[in-house]
Amino acid sequence: MNTEVNSALEILNKGGIILYPTDTIWGIGCDATNAAAIKNIYALKQRDDSKSLIILLAEAKDIFKYVANPHPDIVHIISEFERPTTVIYEQAIGLPGNLINTDGTIAIRITKDPFCKMLIKRLKKPLVSTSANISGMPSPQSFNDVSDEIKNGVDYIVKHRMDEVSGVTPSQILRIKEDGRFEYIRK
């Protein structure tokens, strides 16, 4: 796993795009602070840049670096989620404009996947994570389901967990209201 982290890091630090396994489905990623790399992901996915992307963080405490005013108990709230959960936060900070939604929000998931955690910690920045498909097409359930167009369009394909074929699902997506209630966007 260490070799793959090193190889992916080399590409990410040069502004490249990787195809990699996450704690949900296979994703396309880049350094979430690199606006040019983010633009390249939109182009590869043929996705309208008004549809924002999510970022992965290794630790819940890192939310405070990228969200101006998160819920005071956010670290505890996130620790209670049993399955991968993407939370939409208001008042994104410290990220390029083409990553932040037009309403100022950012979607963040704290990854539990060991490979992703190590990669993010070594990168010392958040990682963009978007499904490895052309916009409007089905999300790949395994590496074998990723289209050649995506495979040929990235700068590096991580060779970790390529053989896994177990059916995985995308994360649930929610907003945490000011009163602490959850508004589910995708369960």
UniProtKB/TrEMBL annotation:
Its EC number is 2.7.7.87. It catalyses: L-threonine + hydrogencarbonate + ATP = L-threonylcarbamoyladenylate + diphosphate + H2O. Its main location: cytoplasm. It comes from the Bacteria. Gene3D superfamilies: DHBP synthase. One of its GO terms (cellular component) is cytoplasm. Residues 2-187 form the YrdC-like domain. It is an enzyme of class 2 (transferase). One of its GO terms (molecular function) is ATP binding. Keywords: ATP-binding, Cytoplasm, Nucleotide-binding, Nucleotidyltransferase, Transferase, tRNA processing. It is found in: Cytoplasm. InterPro entries: DHBP_synth_RibB-like_a/b_dom (IPR017945), Sua5-like_dom (IPR006070), TC-AMP_synthase_SUA5 (IPR050156). The keyword tRNA processing applies. GO terms for biological process: regulation of translational fidelity; tRNA processing. The keyword Disulfide bond does not apply. NCBIfam families: L-threonylcarbamoyladenylate synthase (TIGR00057). Belongs to the SUA5 family. This is L-threonylcarbamoyladenylate synthase.
